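Re: duplicated header lines in exported structure tokens

Our pipeline writes sequence and tokens for each protein into one text file. With two proteins the header for the second block appears twice in some exports. Here is an export where it did not happen, for reference. First protein block:
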Amino acid sequence: MSGWFVFLVLVAATNPPRLRPYVDVRTRPAQTLSAALIVLGAGALLIGVAAGLLDALEITVETWHLGAGVVGVLVGARVLVAPGLTGIEVPDGWAAAVAPFAFPLLFTPQLAALLVLLGTTGSKTASIGWLAIALAATIGVCGVPHRRPGLWSATARFLGALLVILSVALVVAGIRDV
């Protein structure tokens, strides 16, 4: 996978416009930075143990390719239908950095599946770097004022469609490798 493909799929998986109403860098800078660092650390750990994880689960990389693609397609389709998140209450204080900012808003199932895939198919250092850049882009977008909800919703749907397209490419690559 090329670097741009990895970056696009990571940004589509995090979907910053979808998170924007819940992650406000301007009012909670410490919690947002802490959450991003927690996700980066957890992602780096997941990338580092990816090969061992797949061996322990007795899953081949090709099968994981298919699984990560299917998860991405399902999540992307859900975002296309309903781009907003519901039922999320953000706590105050240090707990806001862990739940729900880091888990499950930033560190989502589709992101975890992609990180395991990146840990087994590409350079671990480059994958961690692309994750850091995608998280920085997410935090940057979340710092923009939330003035036009329709625009944010349309952008979230666009990234959901992009996630579907890129995930189909992962499925096709997984089928081709099998």
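Second protein block, exported in the same file:
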Amino acid sequence: MGRQLTFRQLGTIKGWPHSRQWTDKLVKAKKVPPPKKRPGGGAINVWDETEWDIYQGTFVSAFPPPAFLALTAALIDALSTTSIDGILNAIERLRAILEQEGAAASDVVVTLKAKLTASKQATSEAAATTVTDTS
């Protein structure tokens, strides 16, 4: 048995978005666990946190999670990997998330350039600094 949560705590701690009246209708329809009276008397209803967590774990969300959470996770993956394949996978995830939000595939343009090897980089730097004397 977990701690006892009041209706207000269901909203602030567990993210319960519904009013007392709607919650009461759901209780009567046996769609949410019924409250108990606070131990020691009083008119305050409380819900057992463990029982509520089990119930809340059975929810099927009608709304997808906010896009910013998925975008943040994909960006973290892209920035924390050192492989090109990992970056490409993260970019594809970013595109898929943005498309779900209504963006077109052409709205996301990403260009990856392979890192120059040391010899090619030295050659290109030397070519850039070489001055040809035409006198």
